[in-house]
C-alpha cells in the first residue's frame, strides 16, 4: 500500500528506528472510505518499522470556492449555490485529498 511505503521510506531516510504513529488525512470526496483505509493500514503494517504503529485518520470535509466572489464554503455538491452571492458551480478546493500528514517516530 502506497501510504505505508511512503511512511517507511520517510522514516528510514530520517534514520528512525520505528514508526510510533501515522496520521492520514482523507478527504470526504476522495473516494476513499476512512474505516476501510484504517482496516487496510492496520492489517498490512508489518515488521519492526511499522508493526506497532498507531493509525490515526482525519476526515476533511469538502470545501468549495465561488468563482464569482471568491468565498470559500462547505457544501454537499458542486451545484450548491454560494452562500454569499448565490452563484452555482463553485470549484472544489479541499476534501478530495489522501495525504500522509504526520509521522511520529522513535529514534535509534
For the largest beta sheet, what order do the strands appear in spatially?
2-1-6
For the termini, the CA-CA separation is: 25 Å
Approximate strand percentage:
25-35%
Secondary-structure content class: alpha+beta
- Note the overall shape: elongated
Let me know the number of strands. Answer: 6
The radius of gyration is 18 Å
The major beta sheet can be summarized as: 3 strands, mixed
Helix content: 25-40%
Run of helices and strands: HEHHEEEEE
| pLDDT averaged residue by residue | 95
Number of helices: 3
**Which runs of at least 5 residues are low in confidence (pLDDT < 50)?**
none
Question: Which key features would you list for this structure?
Answer:
alpha+beta, three-stranded mixed β-sheet, 3 helices, 108 residues
Helices and strands, with pairings:
Blueprint: H1 2-13, E1 18-27, H2 34-44, H3 47-50, E2 54-60, E3 63-65, E4 72-73, E5 91-94, E6 98-106
Parallel strand pairs: 1-2
Antiparallel strand pairs: 1-6, 3-4, 3-5
Can you characterise this structure?
With 108 residues, the protein is an alpha+beta fold. It is 25% helix and 32% strand. It contains three helices and six strands, in the order αβααβββββ. The protein has helices at residues 2-13, 34-44, 47-50, and strands at residues 18-27, 54-60, 63-65, 72-73, 91-94, 98-106. The strands form two sheets. A three-stranded mixed beta sheet has the order 2-1-6. Strands 4-3-5 form a three-stranded antiparallel beta sheet, with no helix packed on it. A hairpin with a 6-residue loop joins strand 3 and strand 4. The chain is elongated and about 55 Å long.
Amino acid at each position: 500500500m502506497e501510504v505505508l511505503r511512503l511512511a517507511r521510506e520517510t522514516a528510514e531516510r530520517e534514520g528512525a528506528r520505528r514508526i510510533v504513529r501515522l496520521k492520514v488525512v482523507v478527504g470526504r470526496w476522495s473516494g476513499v472510505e476512512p474505516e476501510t483505509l484504517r482496516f487496510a493500514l492496520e492489517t498490512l503494517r508489518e515488521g519492526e518499522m511499522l508493526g506497532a504503529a498507531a493509525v490515526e485518520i482525519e476526515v476533511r470535509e469538502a470545501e468549495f470556492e465561488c468563482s464569482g466572489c471568491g468565498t470559500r464554503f462547505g457544501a454537499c455538491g458542486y451545484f450548491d449555490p454560494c452562500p454569499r452571492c448565490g452563484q452555482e458551480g463553485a470549484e472544489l478546493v479541499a476534501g478530495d485529498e489522501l495525504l500522509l500528514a504526520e509521522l511520529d517516530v522513535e529514534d535509534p
